[in-house]
């Protein structure tokens, strides 16, 4: 890999002959490719804002996210590769994704990320995936897709079990955008506790009878949530419905990955999660001694 410089002085990485590219598992768009210690992905109107966020995180000492290296000669973004294991295309998910160690680490990661993001001022021309571009009072620019399938987990060198290791960070920042922190936390709870429909949770590898009230409490305590559990559950419900609506809207507009996901029933799965959540709310409120 050799560096190159644009007319404006920005440095980016160029794939050389020795940097053979390989497709990375997972992803619904055109996928990402790895070349040496870098990841290459197609850009979009959100890229400039996401890059500004990632550079800010690095500047304030938050290193558990990819680092922006620039744009390559094919017009793709170039990011550092986070070294570790990912869910990739596997289902059920690997054992570490079900463990309490990863659950707690995800909550702590989001706590620290939100703290770092609070001092970020987006560029005035930033465009985000969400429903508005401006950063409003009480909002942060969140990740909004910090699910197990976007986590990078590094097992301990002498690991004797799946929970021996640490969370390196999260990838796939395409859905980043301004919103209240609770919206980001809600999706974390939906996918890590998990609060999905029972058959989806089983398909992802969570054992029947998983103690979801306990896992919800562990997650919220790791994040440092000071509000009520009921607030979180309301936000999870809203977030799941927004996700379903967004997928269906994007599919209607012909966006390929969304068309596939809706055809596979993913939007309906999020609606079924809401039905499950409404039935289980009294049980889940007991997670932190609430009724």
UniProtKB/TrEMBL annotation:
The organism's place on the tree of life at top rank: Bacteria
Pfam families in alphabetical order: APH (PF01636)
SUPFAM superfamilies for the chain: Protein kinase-like (PK-like)
Sequence ranges assigned to domain Aminoglycoside phosphotransferase in this UniProt record: 136-212
InterPro entries: Aminoglycoside_PTrfase, Kinase-like_dom_sf
Disordered: annotated segments: 17-44
Name this protein carries in UniProt: TfxG-like immunity protein against TfxA-like peptides
Species assigned in the record: Kineococcus radiotolerans (strain ATCC BAA-149 / DSM 14245 / SRS30216)
């Amino acid at each position: 890999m050799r560096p190159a410089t644009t007319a404006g002085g920005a440095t980016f990485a160029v794939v050389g002959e020795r940097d053979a590219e390989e497709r990375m598992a997972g992803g619904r768009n055109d996928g990402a490719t790895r070349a040496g210690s870098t990841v290459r992905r197609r850009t979009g109107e959100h890229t400039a804002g996401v890059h500004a966020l990632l550079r800010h995180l690095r500047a304030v000492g938050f290193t558990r996210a990819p680092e922006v290296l620039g744009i390559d000669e094919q017009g793709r973004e170039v990011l550092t590769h986070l070294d570790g294991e990912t869910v990739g295309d596997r289902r059920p998910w690997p054992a570490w994704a079900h463990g309490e160690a990863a659950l707690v680490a995800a909550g702590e990661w989001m706590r620290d990320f939100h703290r770092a993001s609070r001092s970020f001022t987006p560029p005035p021309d930033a465009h985000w995936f969400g429903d508005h571009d401006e950063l409003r009072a009480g909002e942060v620019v969140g990740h909004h897709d910090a699910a197990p399938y976007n986590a990078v987990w590094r097992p301990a060198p002498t690991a004797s079990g799946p929970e021996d290791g640490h969370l390196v960070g999260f990838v796939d920042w395409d859905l980043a955008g301004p919103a209240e922190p609770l919206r980001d936390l809600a999706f974390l709870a939906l996918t890590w506790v998990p609060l999905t429909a029972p058959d989806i949770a089983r398909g992802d590898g969570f054992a029947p009878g998983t103690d979801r009230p306990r896992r919800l409490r562990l997650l919220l305590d790791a994040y440092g949530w000071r509000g009520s559990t009921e607030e979180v559950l309301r936000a999870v419900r809203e977030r799941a419905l927004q996700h379903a609506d967004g997928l269906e809207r994007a599919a209607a507009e012909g966006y390929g990955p969304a068309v596939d996901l809706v055809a596979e029933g993913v939007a309906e799965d999020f609606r079924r999660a809401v039905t499950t959540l409404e039935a289980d709310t009294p049980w889940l409120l007991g997670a932190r001694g609430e009724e």
